Amino acid sequence: MGVQAQTPVIRSGDGVQDGASNTLGPVAPGSLVSIYGTNLAAGVASASTYPLSNSMANVTVSFGAIPAPLYFVGPGQINVQVPWNSPGGDVPVVVNNNGTLSAPSTVTIVPAAPGFFTFFDSVANTLRPVVLANADGAFSQPLNIIPGLKTRPAKTGEALLIFATGLGGVNAIPPDGNVPPISGANTNVTPVVTIGGVPARVIFSGLTFVTVYQVNVIVDPSTPTGNAVPVKISLNGVDSLNPSTGPLTIAVTN
Fold it and tell me: How far apart are CA 61 and CA 10, in angstroms?
């Protein structure tokens, strides 16, 4: 006789978050979302091939009635792609662990909900945005601030690569869980990127991988300098949110 899975529980209040920046708020079709809770899966599994599967380790996730492609499942966390054809508005999210369903958790889906991909700086105990210098791939942070990671301030006039999720529709939407076409998938709307409150010049904005968008910008010469210059992406009037660890910043020098 098989053992029935324990009932999965999505954490109340903050159980469904932007998976790139770990912020609460609306999410967009095609974006990365993290679900937190208990008994979400019996074990740990992660995707190793593409397109992503809608089922992993006997776990499925639905947005409304639409199955979501899975990146990772574990007892306390699941990472998924919001299906491209998810309905707008308040949508129930349900985890199915081996036939046992969670109570629904509501998430608001909007056309675009920009969020930076981030990494955790254990030295400063904060999240930092994934913003790289195009010239050498260095993270745009104070020089040598993170052991083992190449960091240096961005320079005014320099080209930067920003990695984000939630930038909405593209001109060549791939199937759910699949990579975009090699020919590219430009965003339907060009985002506004500000660094220290000054708009950067966007020279490219497109989907480059499953849930991953890349935005290439030129830092404006009038951008403020310093080791903690705030960065923001805006699209359709929706601004990227800061995580609980504080504002997302980069370092800028002349």
Answer: 11
Cβ atoms of 93 and 14 within 8 Å: the answer is no
- The structural domains of the chain, with segments of one domain joined by +, span 9-109, 115-253
Name residue 9's beta-bridge partners.
38
pLDDT (tens, 9 = 90+) of the chain, 254 residues, equals: 445 568 999 999 999 999 999 999 999 999 999 999 999 999 999 999 999 999 999 999 999 999 999 999 999 999 999 999 999 999 999 999 999 999 999 999 999 999 999 999 999 999 999 999 999 999 999 999 999 999 999 999 999 999 999 999 999 999 999 999 987 799 999 999 999 999 999 999 999 999 999 999 999 999 999 999 999 999 999 999 999 999 999 999 99
Separation CA 181–CA 175 (nearest Å): 10
Q: Is the whole model's pTM more than 0.85, yes or no?
A: yes
Q: What's the CATH fold of domain 9-109?
A: Immunoglobulin-like (2.60.40)
Count of Cβ atoms closer than 10 Å to residue 4 Cβ: 10
Q: Residue 117 burial (CB < 10 Å; 0-12/13-18/19+)?
A: buried
CB 47 within 8 A of CB 56: yes
